[in-house]
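User: Could you check the structure of this?
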Amino acid sequence: MGEGGFDLSILQDWALSVRADTIELRPTPGEGDVALHPSQQGWSPTGAGAQMMASVSALSVAAAASGLSFQGVLNRGNRGNRGNRGNRGNRGNRGNRGNRGNRGNRGNRGNRGDAGDGVDFVILAPWEEREKLHDLRADWVNLPVSPPPTRNALRAEIPVLLDLQARLQSPAEEGRREEILNERDLELSGYLTPLGINGASGFDETMRLMVVVAQICEEVGMRYKDRWRAIRPNMLEPCLRPFIPNPAHYSYPSNHAFQSMAIAQIFARAVPEHPGNPELFRRAMRIAHNREWAGVHFRADTQAGFHLAQLFLPVLERVVEDQMIRTSEEWRG
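Assistant: Sure, the predicted structure tokens are below.
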């Protein structure tokens, strides 16, 4: 196991294959196949497969140069939603009841992406997808996500987090520090760069797909966070000093992990032949790693975020099916 608990080099021995019904990461010949199939909800890998799966909980959102982000997508507060009181038909806002402690999202900035060079990417609120989400509520509201570990079990992770905290301050980790700051709001350019998209380059359907997936997963993830109300690492160990402020909501599961892995999976299903898909999945390892380096998540949080993305994928595909088709057509002309 490499620095920080995850060994990125293991991916050198894995090959990504995306088919109509399977997203598969295969080791080199001689080792068994590992498949990320939506129906394999109870699957539990071992060895390098377990390490890789624990790490693939979220995508790296580096590439700050492009500066494209969907700010506020983690729903740090719903003060901006006060204007929705009269919109009784907007069933998508029901999930915001558990977000009273989130004092940020003043005006749903998640609908906007800053593409740099003064270019904004803006979408309308995805009401059609939210309506589908709530029509399918029975299929996702009680997914078999394991409850968080006990506090005694979480204490076993504290030495690793303290070690990461110390090493993050070294000159060698300057780049990682910049990544962590850029990733606070799930910067969109990190998802686009592996696909060869830089700035406002005419891939509006792809960008909309990613923003919509993030928003849909935001609501679902907040519901699961509110179910368990798990504490952040420094609330268990005061000697931990997070590199960024703790988000104003609960820790388990990690929404960064959930949203980011969902984006990678959905794009890979929409455009399975894209040569950038392997790099998109590698980014999952990096951002999961960085949130733990930042001291705001336990490893258990990122594992749960990935697991939730895997369990939710069949429902998510139905919710964003039309947008997936438009994205596929955008790449295939």
